[in-house]
Amino acid sequence: MTEVSSEIRFLHAVQIGLGAWQWGDRVIWGYGQTHTDKDIREAFDVSLNLGVRFVDTAEIYGSGTSERLLGKFLKETDQPVLVATKFFPWPWRFTKGSILRALKGSLERIGVESVDLYQIHWPSIVMSPETMMEGMVECVKLGLTRTVGVSNFGEKRMLRAYSTLAQHGIPLASNQVHYSLLSREVEKNGTLARCKELGIRLIAYSPLEKGMLTGKYTLENPPPGVRASQYAELLKKLPPVTKLLQEIGQNHGGKTASQVALNWLICKGALPIPGAKTPKQAESNAGGAGWQITEEEVAKLDAATDTIKDYSKG
Ligand SMILES: NC(=O)c1ccc[n+]([C@@H]2O[C@H](COP(=O)([O-])OP(=O)(O)OC[C@H]3O[C@@H](n4cnc5c(N)ncnc54)[C@H](OP(=O)(O)O)[C@@H]3O)[C@@H](O)[C@H]2O)c1
């Protein structure tokens, strides 16, 4: 592995983060119904108190609500927080200048002068990785973001982004991708290995497979909303995985299925950013870090999920 550049070393020191998609999203996450601003605030506070200091948001989450809530919370805490947000590649955004403009909007909503990580949320159909990175270079030069990341980039696009930034002496800090025990495409398509080789932090989104790895959803108790149909087939195959997660948790002093699922990602070299709607969930998720399952347990979990349909694209 190449030595990690000093500018992005802080990201490699983070073991676990907090996802903020739930903060304002009504369609998938039922904001306002299953959780309120008070729940979210408490989830944020619990996370900070338990040492989780990396928060991942995006301009698109709740159409800006997530960034605004984060900004409000930041104003009301003295604790240091690492802030990551994202540029959404709407098709009408086709110039590098659109990236700087979008970041300025995010900074205004969050109420800060700069963020720690600015990420391209998805590849664009109208802007090349090179153009997008040129836009990111401007953001770094103006001191509006400390580091640059991409998200949902396959290996080839990621390398194009990496090379463009390298021409300006800027490291590619991260690639945020779907990665969980039930979404292991990045292990097979070379992205995880390439990230490790180049010192790019692989940030794992939907690390609990949108709640499916918590053990609380079963055929008899399916998840609400769109997740019910998305994961209908999975629920039939999930029981042995849940059982194994719980057994491994017992070997480690009573850790929960969720904590073991998050720990498996840490063992794989990824940075999981579980979303939490409540302080209880945030507290549980913070406990996914700070200890380690054994190599043998990692291998058992690999084997138990090898034959299940991969959800990376769904
Ligand atoms: N870059 C991208 O394209 C992208 C895409 C997706 C997500 N993300 C980021 O990744 C973060 C995490 O992914 P995600 O939110 O999709 O999924 P996730 O973290 O796998 O699952 C989060 C959901 O699982 C349930 N949950 C979480 N912790 C729990 C616990 N300890 N016990 C019981 N239930 C628990 C909650 O939903 P219920 O209580 O309703 O079950 C919660 O909303 C997001 O918040 C976002 O920041 C990025």
- What number of domains? 1
> Structural class of the secondary structure composition?
alpha/beta
- What strand line-up does the widest sheet have? 1-2-3-4-5-6-7-8
Mean pLDDT: 97
Major sheet attributes? 8 strands, parallel
Question: How would you characterize the overall build of this protein?
Answer:
The chain is built from 14 helices and 8 strands. The mean pLDDT is 97. The chain starts with 8 loop residues before the first helix and ends in a 9-residue tail after the last helix. It has one domain: NADP-dependent oxidoreductase domain (TIM Barrel), CATH 3.20.20. The chain is of the alpha/beta class. It has an 8-stranded parallel beta sheet. It has helices at residues 9-13, 37-49, 65-75, 97-110, 129-141, 155-167, 185-188, 191-198, 226-230, 232-237, 239-251, 257-267, 279-286, 295-305; strands at residues 18-19, 54-56, 82-87, 115-120, 145-151, 172-178, 201-205, 271-272. Helix 4 packs across helix 5 (129-141) and helix 5 packs across helix 6 (155-167). It is globular and about 50 Å long. 46% of the residues are buried. NADP nicotinamide-adenine-dinucleotide phosphate (NAP) binds at residues 19-22, 29, 34, 56, 121, 151-152, 176, 205-211, 214, 216, 223, 258, 273-277, 281, 284-285.
